[in-house]
Amino acid sequence: MENTTINSTLHGASSNSASGEKENLLRIFFIACVAAIGGFLFGFDSGVINGTVDGLKLAFESDSVATGFNVASMLLGCAIGALIAGKSADAYGRKKVLLVTAVLFILSAWGSGIAGSSGEFVFYRLIGGLAVGAASILTPAYISEIAPSRLRGRLTSIQQVAIISGLFCSFFSNYSLVQVSGNSMETLWLGFDTWRWMFWVELVPASIFLVALIFIPESPRYLAMNNQYEKGTTILTSLFGAKNAALMWDEIRMSLRNTEKSKLRNLFVHNSFKLKPVMYVGIGLAILQQLVGINVVFYYGAVLWQAVGFSESDALLINIISGALSLVACGITLVLIDKWGRKPFLLLGSIGMTFSLIGLVVAFSNGTIDAQGQLQLGDWGFAALVQANLYVFFFNLSWGPVMWVMLGEIFPNNMRGLGLGVAGLAQWLANFLVTMTFPILLAGGGLALAYSLYAFFAFVSIIFVIYLVNETKGTKLEQV
C-alpha cells in the first residue's frame, strides 16, 4: 500500500491548536483494534497447526516430508496473499480486501477441520494462507494510514500484540481440548477427532472479524485516490474534527498530485536491473525475521518438546507459557518503541536471540538418544526450557513487532505498495523454507543441527542491523 502523507497530515492535525479540535483517539484506537483482529487470526491460524501435527500424521498416514508440507502449505498461500494484497487494496479499497480476508479465514478454518485427505487439507490451508498473507500486509498498512504519526509505532505494534495473542489463544485452545479428550487423536465431540476441533475454534474470532469490519471506515487515503470527497472528509471529520478534516483533505490531495504512481520500475535503480538499496534492506529484514527459526517454535513447539521427552499435554502447556512471555515482550515494545526507536530494539533482540540459541544448541548437544529414538536431556532439560523461552522473549521484544513497523516506514511513496508486497513475499517464502526443512533436519541431524543454523542467522542479523538499518523513529514517511 502507498500509505503516504496521511501519516504526516494526521500529525499536523494533532499538533494544530488553532482550531481547538482534538483527535478522537478512542475511535482511532477502536479502528486499529478491529483491523488488528486480522493479526489475531494471522497468529491463531499459524499457531493452531502446532497441536495438530500428530493427528495429521495419523489421519493422512504421512511421513516427515509430507507432514512438513501439510504444516508449511499455508505459507505458500501467505506468499501469494502478501504479494497481491497491496495492489488489490489500491484497486478495490482497504476495507473490501479485509472483508474478503475474513471470509477466507472462515472457509479455511472449516475446511481444514473437515478435510478427508491430505490434498483437501492442503487446499484449505492454502486458502487460509491467502488470508494470513493479506492480513500481514494490510493490517499494519491500514493502521498507519489512520494513526497520528507520533503514535504510529505504538498503534502499528498492536499488529504483533494481536499476532501473539492469536498464537497464545491457539495454544491455550489446543491444550484445553486435549485436557478434555486425552490427546489430539482421540474423538472429542459429535464423533470428530480433537485435532479437527482445534481448527474449528477459529470460526469464532473469524466471524467476529467479519462483523466488526462493517463498523470501521475505508482508509481516507484510498478515498482521496479515488476522488471521493464527501466520504473522505466525513471520515476525517469523525476522527479529527471538521476544520482539521478540510485541511488534511487538501494536503492529501496535494500530495497525490505530486506523487508518482507506484510502478514496478520504481523498485530498481534508474536504467538498470539492480534493486534500490532500500529494497535490499526491506527484503533482508523480512527474510532474517524467519531464518532465526521463530516459527519452528510456533508451528512445531509440541513436536519439539515431545522430542526431548515431555508428554503431549506438558508440551502444549509449555507453548502457553511461551505465548504469555511473548505478550509481555510485545507489551514492552508497544510502550517504548516510539521513545527508544526501532534500531535499538532490533539490535538488542539479535544479540539476545544469538546467545539463547547457542544455549539451546549446547543443551541439545548434551542429550542422549533412548531406546525409542527420543532425545533425553536429563539435567539439561530445564536449561533448554529457559533458553527457549529467553529466545521467544527476545524475538517478540524486537524482530517480531519492529520488522512490521519498519516495513511500513522505509519505502518511498512511489514504491510502498510494491515494496511491501515484495518484502512480504520474501518473508513468507523464507517462512516456508524454515518450516518445511525442520522435520527433515530433525530426522537427519537432530535438534542441535537445526538450532545451530538458526543461531548463525541470528548472528548475521546483528551485523545487518549495525551496518544496514537506519533509525526511523519520529520521522515523517516522506523524510524516511
Word description of this protein:
This protein is mostly helical. It is built from 20 helices and two strands. The chain has a two-stranded antiparallel ribbon with strand order 1-2. Strand 1 and strand 2 form a beta hairpin. Helix 2 (25-47) runs antiparallel to helix 6, helix 5 runs antiparallel to helix 6 (118-146) and helix 14 (294-307) runs parallel beside helix 19 (416-444). The longest helix has 30 residues, at 152-181.
Short characterization:
This protein is an all-alpha fold and 480 residues long. It has helices spanning 6-15, 25-47, 53-60, 64-92, 94-114, 118-146, 152-181, 194-200, 203-212, 220-225, 229-240, 242-257, 277-291, 294-307, 312-340, 342-365, 380-397, 399-407, 416-444, 446-468, and strands at 368-369, 375-376.
Sequence-ordered SSE layout with sheet pairings:
Blueprint: H1 6-15, H2 25-47, H3 53-60, H4 64-92, H5 94-114, H6 118-146, H7 152-181, H8 194-200, H9 203-212, H10 220-225, H11 229-240, H12 242-257, H13 277-291, H14 294-307, H15 312-340, H16 342-365, E1 368-369, E2 375-376, H17 380-397, H18 399-407, H19 416-444, H20 446-468
Antiparallel strand pairs: 1-2
Report the CATH superfamily: MFS general substrate transporter like domains
Task: State the distance separating the first and last CA atoms.
Answer: 16 Å
**H/E element order:** HHHHHHHHHHHHHHHHEEHHHH
What value does the average pLDDT take? 76
Number of domains: 1
CATH hierarchy, class:
Mainly Alpha
Q: Give helix % range.
A: over 70%
The CATH topology is what? Growth Hormone, Chain: A
CATH architecture: Up-down Bundle
Say what oligomer this is: single chain
Per DSSP, what share of the residues sits in E-state strands of 2 or more residues?
A: under 5%
